[in-house]
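Predict the 3D structure for this chain.
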Amino acid sequence: MILNTELEYKGNLFPSKIISYKKIVDSLYFTTENNVVLQLTIQRGSVLRFRYTTTAIFEKDFSYAITKYASRGFNHLEISEDKEYYTVVTAKLICKISKLDLRISIYDVLDNALICEDELGFHWEESHEFGGNIVKMTKTSQNGESYYGLGDKPVHVNLKGKKYENWVTDSYAYGKDSDPLYKAIPFYIGLHHKKAYGIFFDNSFRSNFDFCHERRNITSFWAQGGEMNYYFIYGPQMSDVVAKYTDLTGKPHELPALWTLGYHQCKWSYYPESNVKEVAKKFRDLKIPCDAIYLDIDYMEGFRCFTWNKKYFPNPKKMVKELADDGFKTVAIIDPGIKIDMDYDVFKEGLEKDYFCKRADGPYMKGKVWPGECYFPDFTNPEVREWWSGLFKELVEDIGVKGVWNDMNEPAVMDVPGKTFPNDVRHNYEGNYCSHRKAHNIYGMQMARATYQGLKKFSYPKRPFVITRAAYSGTQRYTSTWTGDNVATWEHLSIANTQVQRMCMSGFSFVGSDIGGFAEQPDGELYARWIQLGIFHPFCRTHSSGDHGNQEPWSFDEDILDIVRKFIELRYKLLPYIYTTFWRYINEGIPIVKSLVLFDQEDHQTHERNDEFIFGEKILVCPIQEANAQGRRMYFPIGNWYNLWNDELIKGGKEMRVDADIDSMPIFIKEGAIIPKYPVQQYVGEKQIDELTLDVYYKNGKEKSELYEDANDGYDYKKGRYSLRNFKLVGKANKLSIQQHKLGKYITSYKGFKLKLHGLPFKISKIYVDNEEFKLEDLKVNGDNIITISKEFTNLNIVGK
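Done. Predicted structure below.
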């Protein structure tokens, strides 16, 4: 007989003292009296994994976030114990585990400096409603510690004093400090005493992070289910932390095709066909470079995915071919919702094969999106992903669409509380069956993965191009992304700047915003300033909601059109520089856009800077983010910086005002840099590149630069058919030397370089190429310090009078 129906509340529960320890290969297991087990795995000398169970038994070890290509291995491991601690020492770290309560403290092995320590450490609360535990971790914030990362949060770059939630959410017209948004990236970086570390909390349940908000000097993170499972990643350089996190969760599987780095034009929606062609023609008539035109949901028949509205697009294959002949790639949207319609082949096949998500007691998950009532594929089932990838054959292989844009994949559902699936929806989760509570945050990621697999299959031998709105850690392996449904306001211009910086330091560099704002209508000044920022984002696309008006470059006055053209042309000139930064990102995990703190963490002034950033390795950018501004104050980090527009040299380490009228913006080049440039093209591949320009910025000292090139598409670069040029510049008072070393088998189309020398403090008297003196007229040297030279040179010496 049960008389008491009140829930017994046990509150927070904690590990007790350690009673046993064992080592199995690279994992150490510490068991407590109350059956808590800590599994400490040494991934690398600087990467430790901490995984806890409260039942003495671990669940199957599975993660969508961790790549199978992640680096593993270490060259030093010592384990010892004394009365109070077990101590684990690697080549980089000292980790102490308290015998009393399993609390952790981690030190730098070189100087014994404390890096990170548990406050309460791991604890948990039993979940009566769902079973399992709410898992929690609290750590002590060190003196002066700052926090960065966490994906697309639309806030100050430094997260200190704030708290956030990770639950992928359709957030139309979100604002500053809105939370949660479209991405769930549970990774943050801590920085104190000039040392940086990262923590990746690999748990796909709804999670929260508190950076000294509720309790001063205490940082905590927790999740509504699953395991306390996190990776500790040590730098001590922030850039190394991000690179190691990106190595762990995966770098993009391919370099993007060069055309994907051009300018893209999108709208909800361009239709019918005549409207699409009209927009494309106007780009060419006005000589505004553009590589891609996007088709939003109105190209479909009743918003049914993988169909065409024959009234609007009677012959899509012919249209796509005609656009391609004029240099435009076509990118089409595909959403997850499949309309309930027995006359619709995709729905009928998915139903017959039982590929749609179901509720706990068996009914299908039914939700309203653009087509009306829909069912939704379970992308966590490998068989469903294979089916989905096959659906792209007609769209990509037959019709010729070159890219696919996944939207609404949070998954978004209309007219329901929470804007998504109920918690009781069930998912396959790679055979680890679970509820939507666990699968929600990775649903969009797995849809993008399935789409990527389809594009890779049917785009071959070209490279795939996918864009996703929703993402979890690791999604960068498959796809690019954008920051979602923003608004045409000056505040959102600023938000776009910080969001892209934050995404890049969270391992996801192929990112941009809807230039000009998706919702509402920008004026010409705002649009021009947004274009100026957007050309320095890895993904560069204008997108808008058509019901607010037109947002093409010519939608404003002639002056704005000229400014927009000027900056898009600058983007196209910089394509070899941008492509090289992508090559570094894909190979080394180095972020493409770097907040100043990533560039120089030792300068405390950089820890709070939001606006300025480094694009690639050599370009300093600071957008104008206010109306009617003719300049702004900005901070110059360590080093000396040339003004792009007039070659004025600014000494770093200070804040100063920079003039920038509407047709300009603050752009500076690092002293000693060699910046490669193409001639302006209306689209990638329009021209054969007969000569490559190298803008050389003099430095009294040494500087290294790189130039990576290949066929701009396809996979031959993976077989060694690439060209990697390493330039070493050495400047002295009356001499400038450039050494070149080339790797790779790819032969570029151009035969020579045009060197433009900036800031040269002397007049040229002699030039030696590979130790042979050349007459100045033979190298076409002129008064503008321009030199024409063979691309095959290995040593160039320019001597002054």
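The longest strand covers residues 114-126.
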